[in-house]
Amino acid sequence: MDCGFCGSKNFHCMQKLLNYKKEIGFSILLVFLLALVRSFEELFYDPFLEYFKSDYMKLAFPEYDSLKLFFSLFLRYVLNSLISLAIIQVLFKDFTLTKFAGILYLIFFLILILVFFSILNFSDEDNNLMLFYVRRFLIQPLFLLLFVPAFYYQDKISKKNNNS
Length: 164
Fold this sequence. Notes:
7 helices
């Protein structure tokens, strides 16, 4: 019977998996840490947590402390980013790639936090859906879901070009 991943007729894939058991285990642990950050989200100051659980399309923005909100979003973003960078390093074993992802995380944070507070301070509730999505990128590790497939594809393309 052929393997669905590599097409071999033996247990080549199973052997490959066993060779990477440390990386798989560490990746699972890191994903678990991301889940822990999410499961303890009530420990972070975020008046928008309940706001977006309600019928927020009809509500005014809740009262908030800008400084506390900034540092809370920053802390959560940093935690998610560091864990995500560790996952990228475990998966790709390329420090240059991990450093590049770290720079992207920093740039995206600066852009997102600027947009987030701009919406809060210079906009009305008509933009609460945009606020919802910007906040989501700040508090959840969504960039990891974008980076891993992109880096994997880039890695495959570069290996293919090097073999040609």
